[in-house]
Specification:
Helices cover 49% and strands 0% of the residues. It is mostly helical.
């Protein structure tokens, strides 16, 4: 199990290991339990587990990524990565063009495609670095207390298992 600081310090070379993408999905959900309160918009979408089986993970992740960026559309990108910043701007424009729900939005596939330049999770690729990008490059925490709650969370990153690949 790893805390945020362990990921930053690359304990056990966690940032270059192949990690099960479901573990990253679960880490994102845990992150939002610290960043959001139960009554907040997108709390359910970003904290509840909608995963059932690996062969049904792709639609779950695509909706999660869409909801994540609907939430992030009201936040600032505070990172320094030009490619991620440009992709975030493109996603914001796509959401401005069509702000409807996941089921009705004509830009879902374009949003998910741009998200692949920001989070490996959108590619169904597991990387602990995604948690750092989410926490450090987007303004998701309301205050320092929420940030400290996040830094105390333990994340369980399972190794990638080629026999049971999420799809």
């Amino acid at each position: 199990m790893y805390k945020y600081r362990d990921i930053i310090d690359d304990v056990d070379v966690i940032t270059i290991r192949s990690i099960d993408s479901v573990s990253v999905y679960n880490a994102f959900r845990k992150t939002f339990t610290a960043a959001l309160a139960e009554g907040d918009e997108f709390f359910n979408e970003l904290t509840w587990n909608n995963f059932t089986r690996n062969d049904r993970f792709s639609p779950v992740v695509n909706k999660y990524i869409f909801d994540l960026f609907k939430f992030l559309s009201n936040k600032k990108y505070i990172g320094n990565n030009a490619k991620r910043s440009a992709s975030f701007e493109k996603i914001l424009n796509l959401l401005k063009e069509d702000n409807s729900s996941y089921e009705e939005n004509k830009n879902v596939s374009a949003i998910v495609e741009e998200a692949k330049n920001i989070f490996k999770l959108a590619k169904l690729d597991g990387s602990a670095s995604d948690v750092v990008i989410l926490a450090d490059e987007f303004d998701i925490f309301k205050n320092e207390e929420d940030r400290k709650k996040f830094e105390k969370i333990y994340f369980n990153f399972d190794a990638f298992d080629g026999c049971d690949i999420p799809s």
